[in-house]
Amino acid sequence: MASLKQVFPLEKYPQALYDWVFFTTDSLYNEKLSQHIYYNTAWLDEEESARHVHKKIWGEIISIPISLSKEVIGKKLDTGVPARENITPEKIREMVEVYKDKTWGRDSYYCTPYYPEEITLDSLTEKMDMQVGDRIYFDYNTLEEENNLGYYNGKMVFKVRYDDVICVVRKPTRKQAEEMAPEYKQHLENKYKDRIIPIGEIIDFILNEGNRIIMQAGWTLIRPEMEKWEEFTTQSGIITKCKLDPKPLRGFISYIDHSDFGLKKGDRIVFHPDANWLNIIEGIEYYVIKEKDILGIFDN
What structural domains does the chain harbor? Predict the structure, then answer.
């Protein structure tokens, strides 16, 4: 197994004081590709930039910070364009032209009356919901030597900054399972049309197998909007394309929490051209996008 150059032993798990979340992982790379196929990471060079393709992006929280600092993590960037508006497909080309030359990063965000001149780390408290034991997702650059704190009980301990946590995954409570049950029931009965599944059985299934994805710090998970075969089929039935691709800049919100603009699951949106960061979260591919990089929503 590929490993860090130097890892120090710890006597016990440390407590995070401010700004950082501590978590554990037993490996740096995704070694299991499927139930029976394993990936050999022995050849990976720690200096090779392409290794990020196989980097692990999740771990288990062991400590959350006691407090957050007032470090500035965002400054208003005036693009000269309204921050949010309902848009139609005709506006997409115009928006791409307006935004394509802008520089984006942690230190900038769209001009909007919803945000102050500066965003500080401690202002994110209401947008965070983490607990010790949660599975945590983060950027693939997190599992680097500069973030390693040592190892304990056979696992490596790392730190990730509070606002770099994409989402956490948590087992639901019974009350939450009861709230989730009708949607699960409909899905399962559509899949298994020959049987009626008792609601109690659904609740037990959710408690044992179901997980809640809880978004953090303004991150969202977007399902790409895919092309349709009818768009590439002529009147005579000839298909002019060999595979379907995601439509540029478009998708559907799958997971979002604490939205500043009332965005919700299922909304069809258009996003910034450089925002389509594709990741696998709980086995499913999503675009991982900051809410600030959602340019608008389509009219229903």
Answer: 1-64+131-171 (2.30.33.40)
Listed in order, strand segments (DSSP E) in the chain are 20-25, 58-63, 72-77, 86-87, 109-110, 118-120, 135-137, 148-152, 155-161, 167-170, 212-215, 219-226, 246-255, 268-271, 277-281, 284-290, 294-298
User: Nearest to residue 243, comparing CAs of 255, 228, 258?
Assistant: 228
CB 157 within 8 A of CB 123: no
Q: How far apart are CA 135 and CA 278, in angstroms?
A: 19
CA dihedral 48, 162, 222, 133 (to 10 degrees): 90
What the block records as the tokens of 88 is 């139609």
Contact 216, 166 (CB under 8 A): yes
Q: At which residue do the structure tokens 């802008």 appear?
A: 102
3-state secondary structure of 232: helix
Count the alpha carbons within 13 Å of 273 in the hemisphere toward its beta carbon: 12
Judge whether 84 and 35 are in contact, CB under 8 Å.
Answer: no
C-alpha span between 270 and 249 (Å, rounded): 5
Contacts of 219 (CB under 8 A, 6+ apart): 165, 166, 167, 288, 289, 290, 291
Question: pLDDT per residue over 5-52, tens digit each?
Answer: 556 788 889 999 988 999 999 988 876 554 444 445 544 555 555 556
Which secondary-structure segment (H or E) carries 187? Answer: helix 174-191
**3-state class percentages of the chain: helix first, strand second, coil last, to nearest 5:** 25, 30, 45
Rounded Cα distance, 44 and 33, in Å = 16
Per DSSP bridges, beta strands 72-77 and 118-120 are: antiparallel
Q: What is the pTM of this model?
A: 0.71
